[in-house]
Amino acid sequence: MELRHLRYFLTVAEERQFTRAAARLHIQQPPLSQQIQELERELGFALFTRLPRGVELTSAGAAFVVDAQAVLDALDRGVTNARRVANGQLGSVRLALTSSAAFHPLATAAIRQFRATHPDIAIDLNEINAAGIIERMVSGRIDAGILRKPIETPAELRFDLLHEERMVLVLPAGHALLAHPKGPRQRKQDAQPQVPLKALAGEPFIFVRRPGAPGMYADFIRACEATGFKPDVVSEVPRMSSAINLVAAGAGITLVPASMQRYQQESVVYCAVAGDEAFSAPLHLVTHRHSANPAAARFAQSVLEFVSAESTRAVTA
To answer: Do the record's keywords include Transcription (predicted)?
Structure first.
């Protein structure tokens, strides 16, 4: 049995006449009659009762109409869905973010915008460190990632800069540097203290585990060493929110992207580091250069267009 047999049968069932059905199907009437007879022989029962001026469905034929139509409807839905998948309108995206990237409002807004404009694409969202994102991207276990500063940039992956922001120093409330006359200085443009880099010598630092996020602190460590000291790293934690919590508990100090200043504001003080131009916290979108997932390609395009529109609005505001 072929699909065309079902289409022929349903057309004859609607027209109740071979001549009109043949005209609709753009074939001759005798071949159409032969095709219906072949279908009836294959099924083992009559579909139509032949009348002098047309045909009418047998009881078996009337029952078969329902299932034949369901088969063709299911096929049409399958073709439509497959076409939407191929066009990136239907499917799923396996997305991973680092903890600090997930905290950035631009990243969450871009994802929210994509969800609103592509409701038929599911997003499987996970929080993973930067090294884990790169490893899973290379192995094909995720489709896209949003992270800060990758230490590895494999050739098969594409890295698009979404946003650039500075790093800020996090001190526990009441820290000695906040009261030291040669410690922080108030910026004229805002109320955020500014701490000289050399004043941080001997301070206990809490960093996100550098095997997981090795690129985040590289510039800062090099700047410290150029100033004459090596940061005393007393603890390494899995995510930046954990580092801020430890700072609030008095366990040390840390650096985080400026967008995380909304966290633990009552217990910590966020400060700029004098000469902090080198201490950047870029936000990157990482995707496969040759993705086999059209939905992932659509996601990347949507994020980049959203970020571009936000940048244009910021410039013209």
So the answer is: yes
What percentage of the chain exceeds 90 in pLDDT? 61
Q: CA 125, CA 113: separation in Å to the nearest integer?
A: 15
Are 48 and 35 spatial neighbours (Cβ–Cβ below 8 Å)?
no
Contact 165, 259 (CB under 8 A): yes
> Is the domain 167-278 a CATH 3.40.190.10 member?
yes
Looking up tokens 């040390």 gives 252
Q: Which structure tokens are listed for 39?
A: 């279908």
Which residue intervals of the chain bear CATH 3.40.190.10?
91-164+282-316, 167-278
CATH for 91-164+282-316, options being 2.40.10.170, 3.40.470.10, 3.40.190.10, 2.40.50.140: 3.40.190.10
Q: Using H for helix, E for strand and C for coil, what is the string for 236-303?
A: EECCHHHHHHHHHCCCCEEEEEHHHHHCCCCCEEEEEECCHHHCECCEEEEEECCCCCHHHHHHHHHH
H or E stretch at 102? helix 99-103
- Rounded to whole angstroms, the Cα distance separating 168 from 189 reads 16
Q: For helices 294-316 and 105-117, what crossing angle results, to 10°?
A: 120
Q: What is the pTM of this model?
A: 0.74
> In which element (H, E) is residue 99 found?
helix 99-103
Q: Which amino acid is at 178?
A: L
In angstroms, the CA 300 to CA 296 distance is 6
**The residue count for the chain:** 317
Stated as kind and residue range, the H or E segment containing 93 is strand 91-97
Is residue 64 exposed (0-12), middle (13-18) or buried (19+ Cβ within 10 Å)?
buried
Residue 210: Cβ-neighbour burial (10 angstroms; 0-12, 13-18, 19+): middle
Start-end ranges of CATH 1.10.10.10 in the chain? 3-86
